[in-house]
Amino acid sequence: MTRYSKSNTYDMRRLKLLLLLVLASAASIAQDTFSIVAIDPETGEVGAAGASCVDLAEYGIEDASFLGVLMPGMFAMNTQAYYDSTNQANAKELLQQEFTPTEVITWLHLNDVNDTPEVRQYGIVAFVDGEPQSEGYTGAQNMDYANHIVGENYAIQGNILLGPEVLEKMEENFNSTEGSLAEKLMAALEGAKIVGADSRCSENESSSLFAFVKVAAPDDEPGEPSLKLQVITKAGDKIEPITELRKKFDEAMEQ
């Protein structure tokens, strides 16, 4: 029988604590602070847009939209706050099996990979029997201000926000903008173009450090959306990424 001294036990506890701190630090890198997912019932398009005050360049992350998953003709999903790729993969698999957004979020809450669902945030919108269905989830341990708004064909969510006005303005812009799904998503993101929308970016004099928008048509290949645009800036640049994203967006629309 192996014997453990008090020193062994103490060292094991320290190791477990260290591992937890490392995991928490890694997860915080993937903090996506405000985002929207939506579908167009008429065209069958699915899309996502989002932004955050995380310095992706510091961690070597090149795809600003990795927290968003699009399945052409089926669904759009954002997994954020303390992001975990396994939770995201599980949700994607369930949605591909035609579980509803509500069923998926219920499953994720009960089967969180680290048994910490209260630190997660999700937004999902999908075609269910040909009609749009949306659902959102904001765990109770998300950092304030945190909440989500669900509409008929969209879900808007955010955490570490300046206040509820960030999400409310995103919803207002999405619903009041005429045009394609891409145009409505871009407008929604501009609703959050407020200094300190992500409260960590106040000193940077911007809403965020990166921003993205992507849209997949029904005949697009998975992982290859017709539209995918992003802007990644660094802390201290004092550049508004949503403004720069709009420039890229307008150029793409002219082509």
TrEMBL record:
Superkingdom as given in the UniProt entry: Bacteria
InterPro entries: DUF1028, Ntn_hydrolases_N
Keyword Metal-binding among UniProt keywords: no
Pfam families for this protein: DUF1028
Keywords from the named record: Signal
Residue spans crossing the bilayer: none
Signal peptide range in chain numbering: 1-30
PANTHER family in the cross-refs: BLL2871 PROTEIN (PTHR39328:SF1)
Protein name: DUF1028 domain-containing protein
Originating species: Phaeocystidibacter luteus
